[in-house]
Amino acid sequence: MRPTTVRARATAGAVLVVAAALAAASFALLGLLEANLLRNAERDAAQQAATVAQLAAAGDLDRMRPAGHGADFVQVVNARGRVLRATQNLAGLPALAPVKPMRPGTSFHTWRLRPVGGEHRQRVVQVTTQTPQGLVTVFVGTSLRDVDAADDTTTAALVVGGPLLLATVGLVTWRVTGRALRPVEAIRAEVSEITDRDLHRRVPVPPTRDEVARLAETMNTTLDRLESSGIRQRRFIADASHELRSPITVLRTQLEVALAVRDPELWPELIGGALEDIERLQQLASDLLLLARIDAAQPVVAVRLDLGDVVGGAVRSRLGDRVPVRTSLEAGVVVEGSELWLTRVVTNLLDNAQRFAAEGVDVTLRTTGGGPDGRTAVLEVLDDGPGIAPEDRERVFERFARLDDARSRDHGGAGLGLAIARDLAAHHGGTVAAEEAPRGARLVVRLPTSSGR
Predict the structure, then answer these.
(1) Tens-place pLDDT, residues 209-266
(2) CATH homologous superfamily of domain 300-448?
(3) What are the phi and psi torsion angles at 380 (to 5°)?
(4) How far is Cα of residue 193 from the mean position of the Cα atoms in its chain?
(5) Helix or strand or coil: residue 104?
(6) The domain over range 44-148 is classified in CATH as 3.30.70.20
(7) Where are the domain boundaries for CATH 1.10.287.130 in the chain?
(8) What's the CA gap between 431 and 238, in Å, rounded?
(9) What Rg, from alpha-carbon coordinates, does the chain have?
(10) Average pLDDT, the chain
(11) Listing from the earlier edge strand, what are the strands of the sheet with 431-435?
(12) Share of the chain above pLDDT 90, in %
């Protein structure tokens, strides 16, 4: 019996809230209306009861007048329950009060007196006063026909109007909710039809600038990212297949030649070439595995590191490089991250610089900033090679991207080093970019520093 759709739940909720509010308002309205009418009805009766009580206290009940405006009857009863005076419509009736009064005072009662009021109630003012003959009680009653009529009319109006109001609220809520959720249903229907081969499709964005429109825009943005991810994945698979095909083909050729050659003196050279291709395959497989881990967004095991020590260690491990590496490292540059991955960033940048440098490579570490966002560690790797053209400064960070002068197998590598360096830096909250340099290529790494604790 519980509503299963948002539209039904919204309608049921609105109807229940309005019903509760209507019930509370109805009780409050009836209570206020009856209290106001009772106050008006008993005002005149109380005045007349006080007047008769004064006459009784003075021993002058003979001057009592018939019931005036706002009163239907008057009855005066002594302490023994004997009726001393009464209006014509109560002639011959016993005392109204079933209990004899004990002390002077005024009280109000609501009774049904059929000989006087018929089917309507009577509001009775009871005033007890002290007289020379003892306690005397004066009863003055006024009909509540107006109160009963108002209550009946108001109750009938609420009984008829309440369900109509609830039906109207339910209908309006149902229609409005349906119109509001119609774009959501269109988005759901479109998304349900999108498969991994239809990531180019987009959900309709309603013209309204509300939450549903923002939901559609967010959904389209997500589809954009999924489509880009799919394109990158397909391109990555194609490039990886192409890069793997070449060394595998060469390796197979060398092995086939080694089998065909009968001269043992040529075997070391052939086997050495095969081992070089196997090493290249291992390096490529390691790079592909690292990229897969990066794409899987595996968290970084972050520890506080002295970036100068990380860079110095990476440089010292490359004593046999083709050109010398000169360093200028600022002390005390502390970052948070993985030592293994940050070392890989430095190593990949140095590999790229060594590949193209003519006479040397300069590595500089410094810090900048110091404002509310903290300081930034800046690592620069500068070579004196041919440099990178401005239009290629972003393309060199694409996976398997190699410039025209670096396409040879012996000189260009697989084209993954800079892409890995940028992705690893991004995992540490940093960036890698190729920037303007007076000569050669200048690759700059920026990482947030870690404040001391």
Answers:
(1) 778 888 888 888 888 888 887 777 777 777 777 767 777 887 888 788 877 887 777 7
(2) Histidine kinase-like ATPase, C-terminal domain (3.30.565.10)
(3) -115, 135
(4) 27
(5) coil
(6) no
(7) 211-292
(8) 27
(9) 49
(10) 82
(11) 325-329, 361-371, 374-383, 442-448, 431-435
(12) 18
